[in-house]
Amino acid sequence: MAIILDSIIGLAILMLLILAIIFLFVCKPWRFFFSFYRAHTIKVGDLERPLVAEDLDLVPNQSNELERSYDLEGSCVQSEAYLNSPRTHGLVHKQRIPPAPPHLVEGSLVLDVITDASEDVFVGQTLKRPFMSNHPIEEQTHIGKEELSYELKFDSDNDGFQEFVRQDIVDQRSSLTLEVISGPSRGDRCCISSTNTSRLPLTLGRVSPSDLLVKDSEVSGKHALINWNLNKLKWELVDMGSLNGTLLNSQSANHHDSGRRHWGDPIELANGDIITLGTTSKIYVQIASETTSHAPFGLGIASDPMALRRGGKKLPMEDVCYYHWPLPGTDKFGLFGICDGHGGAAAAKSASKILPEMVASILSDSLKREKVLSQHDASEVLRDALSQTEAFMNHHYEGCTATVLLLWDDSENFYAQCANVGDSACVMNVDGKQIKMTEDHRVTSFSERQRIKEIGEPLKDGETRLSGLNLARMLGDKYMKEQDSRFSSEPYISQVVHINKASRRAFALLASDGFWDVISPKKAIQLVFQMKERCSPPGRENSAEKIANFLLSEARTLRTKDNTSIIFLDFDSNSRKSFSKLHP
To answer: Using H for helix, E for strand and C for coil, what is the string for 365-433?
Structure first.
């Protein structure tokens, strides 16, 4: 009996031991100890590695309190996404394994995680309803915007060489033109200058906000990019890990490990190259140098998001101002414009790119160009350009104003004509005569209420907004226009203003509503004359730039509550400034 009892006890102990072993292997209780140990163990290198980079780029529709930056040939964009970051984007030098071929350039990639946080909406903004963002968090990989460092460590004897290198770099400017020559987007074009760093790198892809939109099912959403290498003074192509690949002159530009969709290495571009995205979309590359020409007027541009005007709250910068003198392909025409976005800056950015291209395309027709020059009237050009811009824009829940001044000249005279939708305005003064060049398209304006009344759907007394918007005319906002026929994108076209080149009292002032909310046109003209007297005699310095900044400071002093952008053109015969002329 005792033997049997001992056997039973031994068997029970053995079973318990087996169960304990099974429990240990299944539950692995030791992992909690090691996890606790790892959580309390910090490597020395980790102390210097932040969890999230402190200088990540903000989303495009957020504000930027940096100074504006604009190049002499092209555009001044006052939105966050268009301003240069104070850091060098992704500029990291390291050895490559294996070594890169001779035609590739060293560099590496940095991952920027961009969050799309909704912004507070303030009283007085065009958009009254809160902006609901439904865009997913987006991961973007940027090839480094390589900045040339002028802090060369030479002896004092080499200071002259430093200055020579610096000036030599400035003088070597380049323009890039891309034209789709085959595929579904055949005929689409995109132009940019190496000095327009706010728009670099140039992106190619199937979805917005690609700079060159290629609507081809074989093209990835973000397929490739082109950047200007300041060290080598060359344009470079980079495949962004595309699914169907990128070819340059029939040679692959993809990363050698195509299965993992890594970014490719930068490859230098040359004039006449052919870039192939997927198998059908081919892009012709044109590269040209830029020369300098003289514009017979002064130009000043100033802009400020007025971020501190609302008790220190951050105010998104949604204004975009731009200019082209002369327009690509034309020697006698120039374009100056301001777009004020609402619901974000994306629509304003799109309009500022598309509209100049449309105007240049229309004026490339010699018959239409000669008609404008002979009849001194560009009404059809402006109307068609704005109509085509509206058709090309694909913004259903964002919109923008558009105020554009077209300027052309003959041997003795300037001619100016303006078109607008929205409440950004332009005024001119010619020999003491004040000329209003735009029409106010806010719901509260008398002319807009009359227009709405004539289409059979009059506004009620006291009604100052349509579906939360204080504007009745704008570009974009496709969803609103589908829901309410009272919205329109039909522009107002001004009369042509004739300016004698010998005039000493002629200027034009374009500004977004943040300026006009606190300063009347009459007061603005008085301020201009006041500042011109201070800057007398003109010609010694860029007085137009000083006047633009002076007007901006006045709006700031009067505590405007909205983004403010100003373009000032001074036709005083003494106000002359050197501009960069773009040769596409």
So the answer is: CHHHHHHHHHHCCCHHHHHHHHHHHHHHCCCCCCEECEEEEEEEECCCEEEEEEEEECCCEEEEEECCE
CA 3 – CA 10 distance, rounded (Å): 10
CA separation for the pair 113, 515 (Å, rounded): 35
Phi, psi (rounded to 5 degrees) for 481? -70, -30
Q: How confident is the model at residue 41 (pLDDT cuts 50, 70, 90)?
A: very low
Q: Could you count the other beta carbons within 10 Å of the beta carbon of residue 101?
A: 8
Of 203 and 155, the structure prediction assigns the larger pLDDT to: 203
Report the candidate in 377, 295, 375 with the shortest Cα–Cα distance to residue 332: 295
User: Across the chain, how many H-helices and E-strands are there?
Assistant: 11, 29
Give the phi and the psi of residue 141 in degrees, each rounded to 5.
-115, 125
pLDDT band at 311; cut points 50, 70, 90: low
Please state, rounded to an integer, the average pLDDT across all residues of the chain: 75
pTM comes to 0.55
Where residue 94 falls among pLDDT bands split at 50, 70, 90? very low
Burial class (CB in 10 A: 0-12, 13-18, 19+), 76: buried
Q: Are strands 267-268 and 234-239 parallel, antiparallel or unpaired?
A: antiparallel
pLDDT, tens only, 359-416: 999 999 999 999 999 999 999 999 999 999 999 999 999 999 999 999 998 878 999 9
Q: Token pair 């609507």 is at which residue?
A: 215
Q: Which amino acid type is present at position 287? A: I
Q: Please compute the mean of the pLDDT values over residues 113-119 and round it to a whole number.
A: 35
- Asked if residue 70 lies in contact with residue 76, where contact means CB atoms within 8 angstroms, the answer is yes
- β-pair partners for 428: 435, 508
Residue with tokens 């040209």: 288
Question: How are strands ordered across the β-sheet holding 212-213?
Answer: 212-213, 202-205, 224-229, 234-239, 267-268
Are 333 and 301 a contacting pair, CB within 8 Å? no
Q: What whole-number distance in Å separates Cα of residue 578 and Cα of residue 584?
A: 19
Q: At what angle do helices 346-363 and 366-375 cross, to 10 degrees?
A: 90
Per-residue pLDDT, 145: 32
Question: Which residues are paired to 177 by β-bridges?
Answer: 191, 286
Contact 290, 173 (CB under 8 A): yes
> Which secondary-structure segment (H or E) carries 451?
helix 446-454
Closest by CA position to 498, among listed 431, 419, 424, 568:
431
What residues contact 114, with CB distance under 8 A and at least 6 apart?
Answer: 56, 57, 58, 59, 137, 138, 139, 140
Task: Return the half-sphere exposure (C-beta side, CA atoms, 13 A cut-off) of residue 111.
Answer: 7
